């Protein structure tokens, strides 16, 4: 009875695959070795080999922590759990647009303005080139630990004030005694304040508002 338990335990250990062994299988498959041949060579089922190959991008992107020594390819369950802990993924997300921008070292969004870099997988930076007004919003750095860790920061994009000439009134000729409406459309971030004044310096009188400068009318 004890012998059966030992055999089962030994068999379970052999099924454990280290990150290094998985990378070795992926490398050989990319060199042209068939799944069936890999299954025979490593004593694993074809379904297990296929499972490794399906996750090859995530396996290849994992960076082992410094100082980690590989003692054996036949790892204990403790080693396997340690590897899972080390396989921590970092993602950058634009919360307002519900858009996944980067995942680990990969840029997911189609925009070429986004890049990601890191310092030994401990500090991660999201880089945005040619920042535009639509980039404004909340950005979240998310780590896929058992209990998700996240940090949200707000990016404010400052845009110098300018006049929308297509929507702003130009010169007008009207008859005396008639009504006229002039429109000034200013844009920018923060939103600019519009002030009306006459070029000759005379007062402007609109209803109860009167003065040389009028705002928010």
TrEMBL record:
Subcellular location: Nucleus
Pfam families reported in the protein's UniProt record: Ig_3
Major localisation: nucleus
InterPro entries cross-referenced by the UniProt entry: Homeodomain-like_sf (IPR009057), Ig-like_dom (IPR007110), Ig-like_dom_sf (IPR036179), Ig-like_fold (IPR013783), Neural/epithelial_adhesion (IPR051170)
Domain Ig-like: 161-217
Keyword Disulfide bond included in the entry's annotation: yes
Cellular component aspect of the GO annotation: neuron projection; nucleus
Tagged with keyword Disulfide bond: yes
Record's keyword terms, sorted: Disulfide bond, Immunoglobulin domain, Repeat
Protein name: Lachesin
Name of the gene this protein is made from: LAC_6
């Amino acid at each position: 009875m004890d012998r059966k338990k030992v055999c089962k335990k030994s068999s379970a250990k052999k099924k454990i695959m280290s990150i290094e062994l998985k990378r070795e299988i992926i490398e050989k498959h990319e060199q042209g070795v068939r799944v069936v041949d890999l299954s025979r060579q490593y004593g694993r089922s074809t379904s297990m080999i296929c499972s490794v190959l399906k996750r090859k991008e995530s396996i290849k992107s994992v960076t082992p922590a410094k100082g980690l020594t590989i003692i054996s390819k036949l790892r204990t369950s403790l080693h396997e759990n340690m590897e899972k802990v080390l396989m921590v993924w970092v993602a950058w997300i634009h919360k307002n647009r519900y858009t996944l921008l980067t995942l680990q070292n990969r840029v997911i969004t189609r925009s070429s303005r986004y890049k990601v870099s890191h310092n030994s997988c401990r500090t991660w930076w999201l880089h945005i080139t040619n920042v535009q007004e639509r980039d404004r919003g909340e950005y979240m750095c998310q780590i896929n630990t058992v209990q998700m860790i996240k940090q949200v920061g707000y990016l404010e994009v400052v845009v110098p004030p300018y006049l929308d000439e297509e929507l702003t009134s130009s010169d007008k000729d009207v008859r005396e005694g008639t009504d006229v409406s002039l429109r000034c459309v200013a844009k920018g971030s923060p939103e600019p304040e519009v002030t009306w004044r006459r070029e000759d310096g005379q007062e402007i009188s609109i209803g109860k508002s009167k003065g040389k400068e009028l705002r928010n009318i």
